[in-house]
Protein 1
Amino acid sequence: MKEKVKVLYIDDETLNRRIFEFNFRDYFDIRFAEDGIDGLDKLKEFSDVTHIISDYRMPKMSGLEFINEAKSLYPDKLFYLLSGFDITAEIREAIDNKTISKYFQKPYNREDIKSTILS
Amino acid sequence: MRQSIFSKKKILKLYPKGDEITQRRACFIYYLVIVGLIGTLIALLSTLYQSYILPDIDYQLPILICIGLIHAVFWTSLFCLYKKRLKLTGNIIFYGGSSILWGIIFLGATIPSLSRLNTFFYMLTALTMLPLIIQNKNKVFYFWIINILMLVLLFAKITLLEYSNIKADLLFDTFFDAFLSLSFASVAVYAVFDINDLAVKSAFKEVRKREEIAIELESHKENLEKLVEQQTQNLKSAYLDLKNTNSMLSEQNEIINSKNKELEETLKNLKQAQTKLVQTYKMASLGVLTAGIAHEINNPLNYIKGAYVGLNDYYSNNNLKNEDITFLLESIKVGLDKTKNIVDGLNQFSRTNESFDEMCNIHNIIDNCLTILSNQYKYKVDISKAYKATDFKILGNNGRLHQVFNNILRNAIQAIDESGIINISTINEDGFIVINIEDNGQGISKKNLELITDPFFTTKDPGEGTGLGLSISYSIVQEHNGFLTFDSELQKGTTVTLKFPNSN
């Protein structure tokens, strides 16, 4: 069996993490982090992760801040933002300069995420 | 001055401006001079007569009495006649008496037997002259000297007649009497002269006074003229000043007026800006609010949707799906989709940071929207398009314009219950592209027509619409400097007119 794509999902809400696991465990090999700082640690720990999906609104560090920092450390990895907010100028800018590969809106469409990550 | 007194005409000439009294006084002087001369002449004649023509005493007496009476009557009447005008004191008895005495003097002087009495009478006559003389207070002293001289002459005559050896003959006596008569007459004339001299003087004084007054008046007049001239000059300069001030004021007034207009304009602009600002602020705060709400709803919605997806997987993978479970899962899905639509509607408000410099093709936008909406109308509405506008591109935000047409077309479709027509036409007009979207649906009541662009106003059933579609559309059209108007009649349909300025 082909090895699954290794994904790091960062969300401060346990419920979101667990549902994400339910929805995608058949397709991705998922690691979790509770916030941006944890995310950076996990990235160090699991260097084989290729795709990172982060929530936008989180304590300590916003998703965008995390991605900006992580992207500078791991420019080859792909980062995705997931948020209940509509797209903002800040997010658009991040998309335009390729820091963020794609922006997903909550409630997410599983097929959309699946096809994006697996493509 | 004295010489001029002798001519009545001269007098009258002299006092042409004098009043009646002044003229009469002058005339009276003239008469008195004549009278004095006549008196003197009569005295001389009577003396000559008694001396040579009528030596006989028997005839002499009545004639002398007559002469004396004429004298008396003449003087009395003269005094009385001009008493008031000459401002003389004394009454008719006084003047009559003195005149009679004078007559008697003439009489007495010519009767030798009364020679001594004669002297006494002379003295009396001199005294009767006194009041006349005293009245002329100016020359009192002079008249006293004349009087005294006369008395001295009288005493000299008496002395000569009575105590000297010389028997004065009638001729000598007559000459002496004539001389005295003359003296009296001259004194009388002089006295009257003087009175009238005073009158003349006063007349002259009056004239002088008048002249002075006239001169004074003249100078006053000159002063007045100067004053008037000066005042006129002052008035002129004041008038000029006023004129200047006036023109200055009117200039200032004009400036004020124009400033006022500017201010009015500014105020108007400010009010418009304020209205816009309030609207913007409302929308902005609405944007913040809706963005917050959207996020708060989207997050739990994420659990539900995830859970729904998980459940669906679970039932499918384990072949547990039956009719009931399918219905329940489908119900969750419908609920999710509706909620998502509403939240998406709310989210449209928070989109504020997008550019307005895209070239937007209105015809394409309408077509895109119709495509997106096709499954909503395909079985009930005929779309008729009449794209007559040749210039159908505007500068703006493509996404937002899509939202506008999407909202309006969706409303038009929803207004039609079972079947109907939507006419879409475009036309170029005065630098604008005008889009008409006309449906023959249920229409909007007049009351609601005013409210349809208010946020959260909706006539749709709860859950069917947020009441934000047209409010957002209105804002977006305004952002594109366009106009959005509605015309509607219940049961007949609604026409939505959009106007956007052309890009070039």
Protein 2
Amino acid sequence: MERDVSNFSLLVLIVFVMIPFTISYFYQLGLKKDILWSSVRGAVQLFLIGLILTYLFDLPPLIGIPIMLSVMITIATFHARKKGKELPNAFLTILLGLVTIEIFVLGLWLGFDMVSFTPEEIIPMSGMVIGNSMVAMGLSLERMKAEFNTNEGKILAALSLGATPKQASHITVRRTLNAALIPNIDQLKTIGLVQLPGMMTGLILGGVPPIVAIKYQLVISISIFSTVSISAIIVSLVMYRFFYNEKMQLVDFEELKNKNG
Amino acid sequence: MSNHVFELSEVNKRVLQNINLTVNQGGRVMVFGPSGSGKSTLLHLFNRLEDPDSGEIKYQGQPIEDYNIPKLRKDVGLVLQQPYLFSETVIDNLKYGPKMFNEWDEAFVDELLDYVNLPKAYLDKPVEDLSGGEKQRVSLARTLANKPKVLLLDEPTSALDDQNIESIEEDLLKLMDAWQLTIIMVTHNLKQAMRLGTKGIYLESGKIVETGKLPNLIEHPQTDSLKNFTANQ
């Protein structure tokens, strides 16, 4: 029989929430409202997703999976774009990037029979890939803006010497990629040593033998590793162009901000 | 064919208003005026780091838009106020421009170093180890490595001490004679303008208030604003 957490046990979780709440109260951290709101919001969100997933899992895979993937990609796009609102085409770049990534992993998983085409497998695994890619794209955008800001003088110097935008952005793009990839590589290095990855934990709790759980974990970890890299590359190699106009001139950040709100 | 390297007619760009001016072949034009008067913006227009909002710029008789942009920027070299060196060695900085055009000439290095008064031993030095004056020299040499026909200088000596100023000025004079360079230089130092320039342009609040031959323009200003500006130096 499948194991379940009883409703009473769930209620006991309130104790866990009360600990940071009490700390905030005693030390006057001003976080009480945030703690309560995020706990309630988190719980409600998860239950809602649970209900939606139950509904989607009952639909034929060819209908349920595309619906859920579209929703996930759309939300992820809106979220990642927040980091680069003033940049033109950020939305489109992220959206197309996430779609490409999803097609890429689906091709890999299904093509080599790593995952079966069922909502139970595709949706949570795609969620992990899309979520991680979303974070990577947002970080890359943020990093790229910061790099362009700090290196504006050097970029102007390069342009003034006859560099094309591609040549003038070389160092900026390299640094953005570096910054996005290093934590990703570090994470893969310590996987399983510091904390057991979420998916594996879930499978083991669900009664799957650890070796099988690890195989699944490897599939998802390597997929995330590769898609996060692709995300950073897409953002870096596409977005730097929008810091210039067609006359190979650096676009004014302030002007851009005013134009795109 | 006209003797004009640059011709600006009714150019407007941000603070700059209705700028009309010509720069002759081999001319040594000094642009001066209070800060915020649009001097740097004017230099950016010649190198196309920026384009005017309205008006026309001609380079060697042709609209500036007709030229290939990287090629134009190579021909009309700009030395920025801050050196903004690329964080590698001196030689990497010197090679930067010519390598993009596949025109790097190893034999030219000695001549280049000679013009900017830097010893050959400096070539492999990381730029972080250079003094302010040395950085400015490398920045000048980096632009010269492209063998420009016109040299734009944005207050290249503003952060330097008198000794360094004097020696960079000597380098520039040597260069202008040897290369027949056309120079457009922004400076706040009127004595420097008189030492280096043949033509002066006085800009205030984005407008050309007075222009004329140097040193006459500075010694005998006609307008009250230039009189005030020279009196405050």
Protein 3
Amino acid sequence: MSDQTPPEMDLLRFTTAGSVDDGKSTLIGRLMYDTKTIFQDQLDSLQRLAVQRGETLNLALLTDGLRAEREQGITIDVAYRYFSTPHRKFIIADTPGHIQYTRNMVTGASTANLAIILIDARNGVIEQTHRHIFIASLLGIPHFIICINKMDLVEFREDVYERIKDDLKGFVAKLSIPDITFIPISALLGDNVVNPSVNMPWYKGPALLYTLENINITSDENLVDCRFPVQYVIRPRNDQYHDYRGYAGKISGGIFKPGDKVKILPSNLSSEITSIESPSGPVTEAFPPMSVVMQLQDDIDISRGDMIVREHNQPNVSQDIDLMICWMSSTPLQPMQTYILRHTTKETKAMVRNLYYKLDINTLHRIENVPDLGLNEIGRISVRTAQPLFYDSYRRNRATGSIILIDERTNETVGAGMIRD
Amino acid sequence: MTMTTYAVSHLEKLEAEAIFVLREVAAQFHRSALLFSGGKDSIVLSHLSKKAFQPAPIPYPFLHIDTGHNFPETIVFRDDLIKHLGVHLIVGSVQASIDAGRVIEEKGRNASRNYLQTTTLLDTIRELNLDAAIGGGRRDEEKARAKERFFSHRNEFGQWDPKNQRPELWDLYNGRRHHGEHFRVFPLSNWTELDIWQYILQENIPIPCIYFAHRRRCILRNGVLLAYSEFLTLNDADKETLAERLVRCRTVGDMTCTGLVESTASTVEDIIREVAASRSSERVSRADDLRSDSAMEDRKREGYF
């Protein structure tokens, strides 16, 4: 780590997926250890635990934060980990490999720019590998790194690596993944993790950390379709700012500038942006993921849940929404049930109209005529909302194409939805 | 031709995220408060709160759970900041909880009021009928905190159930609650200690002087340097270690369990250099976390910060 971080340092969020013994936690431990993110006291505490259990030092324990996890040797919930290099800060959403897998992986993937998928070189591509890749692609993660791990246990053989790559080709072609990289590694020994492997001279690509540091993520945001969901209206109501009305929120898409002619949904009234304030003062341009305050030329009634857009590029407006949904509750989703739907800064009631099919996420086969959708299942549904949504397809914009469903009685978040084209 | 790149630095992203979360609190809750300890994280939160709502005032009061065992410098700093921001300060007093018989003071050499704070905090939340309490907790601080949500649900007893948390997807935060329940909200979840210091430097945010190296009488107990004060019970072994040293606070909390580090850092730049080169996490100097491997998780389950 350098003393003074250069100001151009950026931030990359990634998620990791692998089956139970693929060495996922070891890989994360290795990345953090080799970038000197693990502190001495944390290492000491792991060492104490190892001695107490009569085991060797286990870097995997670093990511297991709850007592029950350490006791049972399993990961229960998404854990977030941080490390940085002089170029980039990284946020890892580390998700468990077994129970409630889908729910946790969808959660971790929802905010990720990149997914690392781990495959055990000895076992090759298994059913779970397909599931992990499918979920990450469904959640619209733009960059994939497939790490073929435990190369040390297959004598670092190139043919093993090539065969696994070939096995995945057909499956990957069925999904739309913009960017995919394969790296043979040994998380345990550190080959191709931070330093290039001396054991695999046949691999000409860069090591994992170099790849993570250099993947271009600035083009991942939608800079075309201007979308500004109003989050909060700032009204000081004092003498100095008597008539001030500022519309606060996060830019969900496009580039807004003072002077832009805009349209406000749902009123369809037109106005013009007079100023945009960032947290550090006025700006001439605002783009994702900035949090800003806009002021408009005209005094219009605008409140939370409204959306400011450009006149000639408007989102879809409808009460009938077609979704892929991942179910996260032990109470199944059933047609004709009503839920609270949250989309951008808007909340409205929604009724499930149709459950078209559920997916066998290992084979991607559609199973039709199903009565309900259970915990960790993914299916296609349509909902009717009480108020119209202003949306884009999830493929086009993750911020304006995503929704959650909330159970009205328990207030639990029960479903994660991605709006279809 | 110059190419415009629409890149945002890591601090700008973290700032935008935290401000989004603070505005979400103002939009989704009716009675919220910011938990203010006088430490660097809550100072950064107050700075972000000002930015999130300007030119309007900050729409929630600050709540300080006061153990009565403070570094005097922190209280002076707190009162100045409150005046400067024009916010309302509410103090929940652990001494008052002791006097009312709600809690019993710990006895012995390692006694600390840190653990008693939970009762005072939950009582105050109930009295004020708060539905959200904004805290400066960060996921990099401690392994139980790594499991926290931005919007963290607390049941009617103020308890956290880490194994049954609501999934938190995209930036769609679900703050729906039943009567009597509340949320802890952590806008700095994704910040690290180094991010906090870099932001303090970038924004030129004033911090209490005890974060900088100063000479102070300390004792060394169980490998932790503690500031000598009338609140500590010393035995002979402690007295032998009593000496003046050049130290600074890495975290700021109750005097009886906030450890000090030996340091010569006199500027924020010095502190950044020190933190970047440090081989131990900031919680190493917290006697409260060293009590057991799951000390933080246990306290958090019961309603701690």
Protein 4
Amino acid sequence: MSKTKTSKTVHLTIDGQNVEAPKGAMILDVTPGLGVEIPSLCAHPGLEPFGACRLCVVEIQKPGWDDWYKQLVTSCLFQVEEGLKVWTNSDEVRQNRKVVLDLLMARVPASDVIRDLGNQYGVTKTSYAEVDTEDTCIMCDICVRACHAIGRDAIASMSRGPDKYVDVPDKDACIGCLVCANLCPTNAIPFTANDNGKRRIWGKEFDLVTDERSGEVLGTTEYIEHVRKRAEDKGLLCPEDMKHESARVKRYGYAQKLSHVADVEEPIEEVK
Amino acid sequence: MTSSNGKPFGSVKNLLKRAEKILKERKKLKQEIRVCAGPGCIALGAKDIHKELCKQLDDHKKELEAAGLELNVTLSEKCTGCHGMCEAGPIVTIEPEGTFYTGVKPRDTKKIVEKTLLKDQLVDPLLYQLGHHRGGGKVKHYADIPFYSLQLRVALRKVGVVDPTNFDDFLAEGGFQAFAKAIAEMTPEDVIDQVEKSGLRGRGGAGFSTGRKWRSALRVKEDRVWLICNGDEGDPGAFMDRAIMEGDPYSVLEGMMIGAYALGATDAWIYVRHEYPLAVEHLQMAIDKLTNAGLLGENILGTGMTLNVRISRGGGAFVCGESSALMRSLEGKVGEPRAKYVRSVEKGLHDEPTVLNNVETFTCVPAIIDKGAEWFASMGREKSKGTKAFSLVGKVKHTGLIEVPMGRTLREIIFDIGGGIIDDRPFKAVQTGGPSGGCLPAGKLNLQVDFDTLADAGAMMGSGGMIVMDDHTCMVDVAKYFINFLIGESCGKCVPCREGLYQLYDLLNKITNGEGKPGDLETIETLCHTMEVASLCALGKSAPYPVTSTIKYFREEYEEHINDGVCRAGVCPKLIVYHINDDCNGCEVCRKHCPTNAITGEKKKLHVIDPDLCISCGICKSVCKFDTIDIMSGGKIVSRDVVA
């Protein structure tokens, strides 16, 4: 057997466009800038791909397959390959996105985000039985995964199947950083960012720490402590480094919302 | 348990010597009585039978000794795993004749010992009776019962034969010959070659080639390979793996040991369903004995091979039978499947290469090594080699555990082996492949069962559950039942499965309540398609099969429910009314039993059911001795039992 040449990039076509992409990347990751739009609710660049919402489905065909045969895959979890053909907006793709949105509209009828997205796919009213709820959580687990990434693991998804819900079983673990609420694609986590030096989220109240010189709110006491500890654990002890670490966590917390959810420029809305 | 001097076997030679010695001793035995100690028979008193039998044999021995005589026959008794014909339990067999006694009670043991063992006479009332379509009559030996004669047991070869708690017994029945052969005469490459050539496909459901899986794991050059045996059998009505783990734990372990030798694995897990305490007990007993005997642990049989096997008990989640969810569960995390772009053979348990196979698959491996790949490949069909164990349940006469070569027709399995439908009612459908399998109608009875034919017909092999249904089964209700099961078992990670199942149940529930609308069927079909193509794991992808297959083959029943409000099987409570016909002689039994006082009528006069008060519980129908209560749906009688 001859040695196969290992190259670091692969070539594929997405909706007819020739694309060169790094090996191992997911289809969803290589679409920005191509002018194709793949909706997605549970993906976030800072988190591992998860594949819960199934909105980012695309059709693919591998080299050597029969011409008529295509497969539906989730683009957030499918790695690019040499010679791969991808269709991001075919009838089959739209049809399945439509059913997924139809299902979500029945689950969270109160969500504007889902309703707007549904309208884009021609779903104005759900075909299924609406759940009578004001809750807009779609169990994408972004909050759970983000909280894990930050190193707190305060949020967990509980129960299973249609009864699944997100909660904070260990209230002590929550540091009121608001990352979960800010990343939530459907604004399902109610919070009060600053009410006379107090912050409220997940039924817990936090004291806010303000920078004495600039008057800027730095975060909750627990959040500052968490950043300090994390920095300490990593051996980052000089004040300059502390600042960096703090900025990093903060940036994470106020990471831009997903493009289709809200305009990046807009200030973060407070819910309730 | 260990070699004769109590020390571990130091070499393959010692092990084989020990086996030979046991066999020699066994040759002196004239007869052996096997008491089935599967859970079904235990529930019916098998343990008491065994105790009583031991007592009888002891008494007999003492009597002879007292009379100064020597025992003229050498007898032994043992408890074995499931014999398969659970419906006829408790079962006692006597070898080598193969005498087969059914429905044995502790008091029958005296007769069995005195008549059968000492005088070679049969105990007539305990013999198995053939059905009238086979001319009635009693059968002496199990080899003559169609239920057994039409089977071919490979995975179940030692279940019901060996005492699962006795290592010597396993050796005497040819156990560990395959492992000895593999470790002494074959290279790991040879082992994988044999498994690949045999055409063995994973028995857990997906049917992936075991040899190919092993080979791909071998290509991953990592220090550690995990070996996992999946015993998380969660399908309702399936108990093949349970029977194997309980009745023949050593074969499962032997298969894993051969696999570990081939793959160079040093650590293995057996993931057993929480509801299988006896399986855990027997497996743990077997692991302990093998460790003491030097067949597990470090430096196995002096060859330098290391293998540690541990048991993990599942937490009761069906989805943990899915391989990636199982691995997460083993890691101590929530059992949720993950995307398959990372293959388990590269990154599985703890992100290390992992090979996972089903209990039945591992159990087939020693037989393949022992008898050769050609032998295994000579059974079954072109693309599905060998045999498959099924649990045959539902409205079939002989419920139980069976194993047949691939390619047997459904008709042979249900009517010849299973003995047909209870009360000789018409056959309506058979559901294969567990909750997310499909229902096949009478028109598919000649289908030759294998992985691909079942999938083509809209059902699946799954792990091998087979539920037989008669004409009193409403197919919409059946679909609703399985969807309800899956709702409880979906992990809830992805939208099509979590929300799709919820809405599917809602739609089916409306249809069975007579609230179905035209167009519902189309909505269901659209939804099922998306669930099939867009769900994350196999549970979600196959979850709509019970619905799609019943719509495919029984569409008219759905349409009757929606358009006419008729349930032809007389099952859906909102669509049926109970009615007393003119044959009623006024015996008052139904009136007295009715929990809602819906029945009125005087003695010796026709009784009447008030439909407004009736809750369709069916008690009146079950207590009426004159069969005068009909179930009506859409103005027609749908239930009058045909009196044969």
